[in-house]
Design a protein that fits this description.
The complex is a heterodimer. By secondary structure, chain A is mainly alpha-helical. Chain A has helices at residues 3-26, 41-47, 65-75, 77-80, 116-126, 137-150, 181-184, 208-211; strands at residues 37-38, 62-64, 159-161, 176-178, 204-207. Among the domains of chain A are: 1-27; 53-167, Cytochrome Bc1 Complex, Chain D, domain 2, CATH 1.10.760. Chain A contains eight helices and five strands; from the N terminus they run H-E-H-E-H-H-H-H-E-E-H-E-H. Chain B is 12% helix and 30% strand.
Chain lengths: 225, 420
Amino acid sequence: MSRWARLALSVALLFAFNASARAQTKNDTPRNYGIGRVATPEQIAGWDIDIRPDGQGAPSGRGSVKDGEKVYMDKCAACHGEFGESAGRWPQLAQGKDTLASHDPVKTVGSYFPYLSSVFDYIRRAMPFGDSESLTNDELYAVTAYVLNLNDIVDDKFVLSKETWGKVKMPNQGGFLDDDREKTEKTFWDPKPCMKNCRRPVKITGHAQAIDVTPDEKTQKRGVE
Amino acid sequence: MTEPTDTKQATRRRFLVGAAGLAATGASTTRAENANNLPPNVAGWTRRLGEGVGVRAYGNPSKYEKDVIRRTVSWLTATPESSVSFTPLHQLDGIITPNGLCFERHHGGIAEIDPGDYRLMLHGMVDKPLIFTLDELKRLPRVNKIHFLECAANSGMEWRGAQLNGCQYTHGMVHCLQYTGVSLKVLLAQAGLRSNAKWIMAEGGDAAAMNRSIPIEKALEDCIVAYRMNGEMLRPEQGYPVRLVVPGWEGNIWIKWLRRLKVGDQPWFTREETSKYTDLLENGKARQFTFVMDAKSVITSPSPQAPVKQKGFNVISGLAWSGRGKVKRVDISFDGGRNWRTTRIDGPVFDKACVRFYYEFDWNGEELLLQSRAIDDTGYVQPSKDALRKIRGVNSIYHNNGIQTWAVKPDGEVENVEVG
């Protein structure tokens, strides 16, 4: 091969290499490594418990407010209180209407949750506390119906199922807006933050020691001995 | 500001009293000295052989460090299975948190998963639903990334004013680790995303089966399905054997004990992204999907649990992070935010990771109102608590990244205070 031919070939190879490097960065879908096994419909069915606001994923079954009262008293009332008012520090499930803009907002299923699915999906996966995923579908529908009833969202005769799912209207559905910090908190982006005399001399206006809720060291478990 | 010699003795006594008082909040106490170990004597550990290799098959910290522990606030929650313990930030330095000291937040206790029985399911809007074993995940290409994780509720108890007296409690729901795992983008490609895929639901295999929705853009950008922290396998408290890493975003979405990823075309509005982890504003409306953790910093020493021990030369040490990018600069103030000076960042600076900052100075016993403010590479400047409250009110619980004030008193004690 002549020197020119060699040069031409190496230039061509260089271009080819560049082209393939570009192709890799442009089409950056990772390759398939053939690792992992296909999930069977049966395997998926056992774990596929999530439910969306539109009811997609809701299981078959039904439950009345009346049946739900029994489930609730047996499995929920000890922590959440007979009327959803909460026992001790456990989450309150009912009441709290018109408190969200107050000094002491009470966030409950009725006052705060935006969708039926947000409640139902959670009960289905995480309740009763300490006995997760133990309720039958009918119990699940019933106890959810009862909690809705505690919040005056459905009446005493209501039966919750996939078919009646769309009838439930949560009071605070319109209570949420998407993260708008980049707009509403725009002033926090400051190319030249103040360094000198940025405010008047400050005074202490509050003391943590006065509140005195910091845990005592005696309450802590010790480290390795 | 020099001190007359005749008051020095009295000042020292006050320091000791202060230190004893602070032992109650986890401050390090001064150990009694044993003259036999001090020069000119030859110390006991020099004269005798120590334990041989293998005695400590998995090493622990020195027995003299047993007060370096995660601490809890018992009145915060109804039960320890759904609760939180805090990283002892005041007892640490650098940017990497030791594995055993990373704060814990569980909603149904620690799942103890047999790695042989571990499975990750990936399904929904994909071409081919898949199940992976842990070994299969480990066969895929690996990435190593250092990122902070902050709980959205870190500093959540401070919205209405200074409450907890120690940076462990006010800021200790943060840690920073190196993660090893497979990029979520690579994992998703194994199943093949359908063109209408917009959101991904991640779900844990613990007793809370925690589930959160993640926009597909973020999933493909930098998320990691991680199985190692700082080189070793994840600790059970941190999701062993597999957790999701969602760089810069609130900790709740970094699903631990990850068992399922489902691809969909809209968010799920799960309990954890509606009833919890939404930020209630003054008008009763709440912000949702506030994923990013804004720039934040805290002086870890001195702080209420780590008082100033002597006058003269002192090093101020602190931690800063931003979910929007790299920390570019950290300033501190000695006068409650009136005047600022720039600190020295020492050690590596990574994207969406903690940085360590220092400020060296001479202290002569004057009262200080210490503050720090982080500035990130998007130009975001950590705001004052009052500036945050002006926009958000005090009912948000989450995302409190306001500037912290520590009052340093003449005896070296430090208190969490509010200034105005």
